[in-house]
Amino acid sequence: MMEVGRSAENAFYAFLELVSDVLGFNVNTTTKREDVGGYFNNLGKRLGEASKELEEVVKKSEVGVDKSDLSKNPIREIVNSAKGVLDTLKGHLESLGQVGDANLVGEAVTNNKGVTVDDNSIKKALKALQEIVKVAKGENISEPRSGSTAVKLGDADNKEGAKILSTNEASEAGSVSKAVLILSSVSGEEMLASIVKSTENRVVALTGNATSGTTPLEFAKGGTSAHLANASDAKAAAVAGGIALRSLIKDGKLASGAQDGQAGGKEEVQKVGITAVNKLLGAVEDIVKKTVKNVIEKVKQEVDKARDPKAAGQ
User: Fold this and answer.
1) Burial class (CB in 10 A: 0-12, 13-18, 19+), 20
2) How many CB atoms sit inside 10 A of residue 101's CB?
């Protein structure tokens, strides 16, 4: 059982290595969406490696055991369950790796209207994020908490920050600072919650004024500046989530309201998109990390029980 214990510890250390080597990905002005896709694929690959480490735990626990008793092996049962969770998580992360393109994260158009996101890609992203949260919930990880903050904070109405999502005309130079304030008022967790609570039928551009119920999917799809920036009670997490999705998903481009290099130009708009994406990625990383940690710890606890003669004799 000592060898089994070492294998369990190796799996746990592989998880720690996963945290230190892969998690903590940060987008900057030169990061392409396909780079983010590569990150998700690499994260999925590392989960696959952790799954293999767990299989080694089982193999060593079955050495010298009568084959007729293998079906009763509690370590086999917990490892099979853990591998199922890791493999499922791996598949959803790989799906997220397929929603981008070769454009820069937060790509913005020069003093012109933005470009909406690809329908199939945003639907794939929605499904993957929803399933990641679902897997986490199954491992006793709390669902991301929703935020109630509106785009109007006290006397400061930042609704015009949504104009960088316009798909009918250029935004305004002042829209960038409003968008920054919207982003600063919410967490990545609130953005993720707002996205995963949306439904696929909301993958449509706005045809009327935004409301408090407008989802990140609709903000990501866009609409006219007038519709997007109409409501002071629109949720900040929904606008921020929409900016993140527009910045990350295939074909999407943000609108800008000035020439390159000027205040409100595409460089400033891109930075807003990058901030939104980094917040969202941080929330996804956090929930994946907590899920994997719980899964690995369950295995380690079962191995520790098997190694403890007192526990075995009870």
Assistant:
1) exposed
2) 17
> Residue 250: how many CA atoms within 13 Å on its side-chain side?
15
CA angle centred on 311, ends 306 and 314, rounded to 5°: 125
- pLDDT digit string, tens, across residues 76-85: 888 899 999 9
Beta-bridged to residue 115, according to DSSP, are 253
- What residue type is assigned to position 41 of the chain? N
Tokens 């005309």 belong to 169
Longest dimension (CA), the chain: 76
What span, in angstroms and rounded, lies between the C-alpha atoms of 22 and 38? 11
Of the chain, the percentage scoring pLDDT greater than 90 comes to 71
Q: Is 205 left (phi over 0), alpha (psi -120 to 50) or beta?
A: beta
- Cα–Cα distance between 314 and 312 in angstroms, integer? 6
Query: Tokens 């949260």 belong to which residue?
Result: 133
In eight-state DSSP terms, residue 116 is P
Are 96 and 125 within 8 A, CB to CB? yes
Task: Give the chain's residues under pLDDT 70.
Answer: 1-22, 61-72, 307-314
Cα distances from 243 to residues 229, 252, 295, 297, in angstroms, run 13, 10, 33, 36
